[in-house]
Amino acid sequence: IPVFLGKTRHFSIAHVGLILGVGSIAYQVGSLLGGLASDRWGRRNVMVAGSLAQATAMAGYYFSHSFWLFLFFSMINGLGVGFLAPTLKAKIADEVNSDERTTAFSWRGIAAHLGIILAGITITLSFTRNSSLFLYAAAGFVVLALAIRFSLHPDRCTGDHCPRTPLTEYKMILSNRTFLWFSGISLLIWALYAGFSLLLPLRTEYVLGSTASIGLLWTINSTSVVLLQGFVSRYILDRINPYVALMAGTMMLGAGLFFMGWATRFPTLSASAVTFIIGEMLFLPVLDSLVGGYARDEQLGAYFGIANFVSGIGTAIGTTLGGTMVERLGGVGSKPPWIAYGFTAILFVSIIGLFAYYTHTQTKMVRHAAEHQSLLKRKQSAK
Question: Are 307 and 299 in contact (CB under 8 A)?
């Protein structure tokens, strides 16, 4: 989209940035609204609405020529993605047992990266180099909406007779102190994660003198997820504490960014990128699974909507502060920025460890209180 807007529609970089920025803001709003709406009107309905909104946006891109129209359809596209993303995760959480959610979200990650690979191949092999691609994309989203409507199981309860959670009860989410602390932890992880997409192209251009290999690096990463995520889930995530997985994943994210500063060839750049993506394989399924664990079943959509919103805020903070830090420490060609990322990862891992200890302590206190109440009841019964 940035290339198309610049070279075909002749928009300035400032206009392109504004168009993309409006879409990002709309995505955050759509995440909150979509998660809430899916709890009240059904996951499948909201996912169909999100797909049709994206289809409308793609068709709008095809027919639009003015800056204001692109701005409007970017907002529609952001809302559509926001409707679709958290609702999809809530639907997955609905369909599996709580002890299977990490595995289910691992498969979601594999499917997502397969989609990235197919998208790259499709665009690379496409003979179309103009706005017609948007028309094909619109048709694809219509097909997606139909597939969701006719292939997914309907929600467990639909219609006016179903019980609806009053909107006032959603305020209870803000009183869930553990979830709020967890949201802060996930914001830190997403801020660190955002450094990769920002810095990999810049470091690759600095080392290799061109950006031609960036697409290949992304393909290698996505292929690594497809090949390794199942192994990581089965032999690592299913056997260790989820907070240990979060700590290990965050450490690998930092290690990938740290080693990127010492990569001077394509193979070493690729190795640092794969190190980083292993961190994603460790933390992302666990992060989604824990969100489902904190949520009440009737509020799953709202919880995942908030989690998506937090990821967007963390990404925005990570790209903004990360870019500023790298620039002030000498740019991608110097060592200090990459050392700083390594120390930042260690700091974040320490914070996650403290949170895990706090959560473990709170759980023990609740368990002891429940056991004490049960003992009192047995004594009263005996009397």
Answer: no
What does the block give as tokens for 31? 């995440």
User: Distance (Å, rounded) from C-alpha 333 to C-alpha 261?
Assistant: 8
Residue 220 tokens read as: 């290698």
Q: Which two tokens stand for residue 358?
A: 């706090």
Cβ neighbours for 295, distance < 8 A, ≥ 6 positions apart: 93, 179, 302, 303, 304
Instruction: Report d(CA 11, CA 173) in Å as an integer.
Output: 42
Q: CA 123 to CA 199: how far, in whole Å?
A: 23
Report which residue type is found at 25. Answer: I
Tokens of 127: 């003979």
What's the predicted TM-score (pTM) here?
0.74
Distance of CA 208 to the CA centre of its chain: 29
Work out the number of other CB atoms within 10 angstroms of the CB of residue 7.
Answer: 10
CB-CB contact of 310 with 179 (8 Å)? no
Residue (of 363, 370, 365) closest to 178 by Cα position: 363
pLDDT tens across the length of the chain (383 residues): 776 777 778 887 678 777 877 887 888 888 888 888 888 788 899 999 999 999 999 999 999 888 899 989 999 999 999 899 888 888 888 888 878 888 888 888 899 888 888 877 777 676 555 678 889 899 999 999 999 999 887 765 555 555 555 555 566 777 778 888 899 999 999 999 988 887 888 888 888 887 667 778 888 888 899 899 989 988 898 888 889 999 999 999 999 999 999 999 999 999 999 999 999 999 989 888 888 888 776 777 788 888 888 888 888 788 878 888 888 898 888 999 999 999 999 999 999 999 888 776 665 544 554 454 555 556 566 66
* Distance, CA of 289 to CA of 218 (rounded, Å): 25
**Could you give the CA distance from residue 216 to residue 223 in angstroms, rounded to a whole number?**
10
Over its C-alpha atoms, the chain yields an Rg (Å, rounded) of 23
Helices (H), the chain: 2-7, 13-41, 43-63, 67-95, 101-125, 132-151, 177-208, 214-232, 242-260, 266-294, 300-328, 336-382
Per the CB < 8 A criterion, the answer to whether 223 and 162 are in contact is: no
